[in-house]
User: Fold Glucose 1-dehydrogenase from Lysinibacillus agricola.
Amino acid sequence: MAVEQQVIIVTGAGGGMGKAIIQEQLAKGNIVVGLDLSVASLSDLAQDALQCFEVNVLQEEHVNEVFKQVFAKYGRIDGLVNALGIAQAATPIEQVSMDEWNRLMDVNVKSLFITTKAVVPYMKERQKGSIVTIASISAVRPRPGLQAYIASKGAAESFTRGLAIELAPFQLRVNTIHPGPADTQMLSQFTAQGADIEQTKQSVFVQSVPLGRLVDPSDIAGAVSYLLSDAASMVTGTTLHVDGGRGL
Ligand SMILES: NC(=O)c1ccc[n+]([C@@H]2O[C@H](COP(=O)([O-])OP(=O)(O)OC[C@H]3O[C@@H](n4cnc5c(N)ncnc54)[C@H](O)[C@@H]3O)[C@@H](O)[C@H]2O)c1
Assistant:
């Protein structure tokens, strides 16, 4: 039996994980809609099944308009993957400005409210949908100096659980993934100002993973595929750790 083609929206589409998620969804034959501040990194994936929008996801009206267009065009939105995010450079709390706190909360948390609120009506209409949010293992296994980032990822996990119970009667599933330190450009942004990035990658990040390597974006793409699929049809409100054991 032919597998039905799904329509999947991915935020943070131009980032390390976002691109890997998109590649895997396209390989599965799905239609993918990618949103990011810049989608230049996706130019090599150009094909009819991929539609990209350069959008600041904090601009609610713009997001609503894109989702409306997607539903009008395809008549369905099966999955939303919230893969955007920003890092915090390790900083003692006394030196963290209110602007920096607000920026992290806006991008990492408010964006989830905006995209989820926008997609839920379309998913409710079809009584089917899966929402996956990329949070971070740091929410439960913190490192010093990342207090605002960690708080934002904890909020992402709680938001997921709150929505999972709210949306279960409509057959919508909502889950979180906690990646461990991952091999994308973001990793270097967690280091303290002035630190040697390559050295920190090995001595701090790789060392902290029991399975002995950084998470590859494809590891996250695989976990996303599972949570989007019918194989996970009884999985909701959960957090999947894809961290090589970092959370242990
Ligand atoms: N890399 C890691 O070590 C790591 C570990 C744990 C969790 N995470 C989380 O995984 C997710 C993906 O991270 P990544 O490693 O792919 O990082 P990345 O920096 O490669 O990608 C993040 C993307 O989000 C986009 N983005 C940021 N703000 C946006 C906005 N307002 N509107 C639209 N797009 C916006 C950026 O342009 C970027 O392309 C993030 O939520 C991150 O916090 C990353």
